[in-house]
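Worked example 2:
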Amino acid sequence: MEWLQVKIKAGRIVPALATTTASIAGLQTIELIKVIKGNKIEDIKNAFLNFSVPYLTLSEPGPAKVTKLTEKVSVSIWDRWDVHLGEKACLKDVFERILEKYGLECRDVLHES
């Protein structure tokens, strides 16, 4: 491939990347403002964007799948459990607190993930 052909192709790719990045950033900002304002879940949208066609459609996101762990405990992928213990607490204390509070036996531990 000659130098001129490479320059022509690169000259088309860079503006396309910039346009796509700016569009996605704008759509994300709109949705973030809705979340910060406390809008209802029905106001938040998923965007499907295709510049090659040109096509943009907005749809309502589906609810997160909820898994029932016990009779009293149900979780989704968005749930987070914070366990507050003293500075001298060890991993065994965390396991005991979760067993006591939720009736669950721990198998995995993730830190700052």
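The radius of gyration is 23 Å. The longest strand covers residues 46-50.
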